[in-house]
């Protein structure tokens, strides 16, 4: 193992001399070999820092994703309430229109048109609602909460550590 060697200055013959005018002005480190234990300690410390930073990154990324999902869920809920109230009014209007059409065009009795019109409008509304709910659930479930950037970064870190250890 070599230790640090300090070279002050050399003469033309190669002898070491100290510069009296400015002691230490020409000092420099020639070679430094560190013990294996120190290298492993440094690797351990750097790996610990790396893992801590990856955990911070994962927390930030998960926080961003959960915030986005939460915000969009709130929009969906409020939109659902408003759309639901509006849909009830539209269903009454549609049922009244179908009722009038059944009485006038199909010449059905008022009693028959009275239950058939809301049934037709309700069935169409239920079908449209089912399609929209199915699409919304599918879209939300396709959003992954896995922090992809963190996973990629961890994979790169693993490769880096493997190269360092070799």
Q: Total strand count, please?
A: 0
Q: How many individual domains?
A: 2
Taking the alpha carbons of the first and last residues, their distance comes to 21 Å
* Fraction in helix: over 70%
The best one-word shape is rod-shaped
Largest sheet: none
Would you kindly provide a written description of the structure presented here, covering whatever features stand out?
The chain is rod-shaped and about 105 Å long. The longest helix has 69 residues, at 36-104. By secondary structure, it is an all-alpha fold. α1 (36-104) runs antiparallel to α2 and α1 runs antiparallel to α3. It has two domains: 1-33, no CATH class; 36-165. It has helices at 36-104, 110-142, 148-165. Residues 1-9 and 19-31 have low confidence and may be disordered. It has three helices and no strands.
Condensed summary:
This protein is mainly alpha-helical and 166 residues long.
Structure keywords:
single chain, 166 residues, mainly alpha, 2 domains, 3 helices, 72% helix, 0% strand, rod-shaped, disordered N terminus
């Amino acid at each position: 193992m070599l230790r640090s060697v300090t070279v002050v200055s050399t003469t033309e013959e190669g002898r070491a001399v100290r510069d009296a005018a400015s002691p230490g002005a020409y000092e420099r480190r020639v070679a430094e070999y560190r013990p294996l234990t120190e290298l492993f300690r440094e690797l351990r410390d750097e790996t610990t820092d790396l893992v801590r930073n990856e955990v911070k990154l994962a927390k930030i990324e998960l926080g961003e994703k959960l915030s986005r999902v939460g915000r969009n869920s709130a929009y969906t809920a409020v939109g659902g309430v408003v759309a639901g109230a509006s849909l009830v009014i539209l269903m009454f209007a549609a049922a009244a229109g179908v009722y009038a059409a059944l009485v006038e065009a199909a010449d059905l009795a008022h009693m028959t048109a009275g239950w058939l019109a809301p049934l037709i409008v309700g069935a169409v509304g239920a079908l449209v609602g089912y399609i929209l709910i199915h699409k919304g659930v599918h879209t939300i479930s396709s959003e992954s909460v896995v922090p992809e950037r963190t996973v990629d970064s961890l994979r790169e870190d693993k490769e880096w550590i493997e190269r360092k250890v070799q």
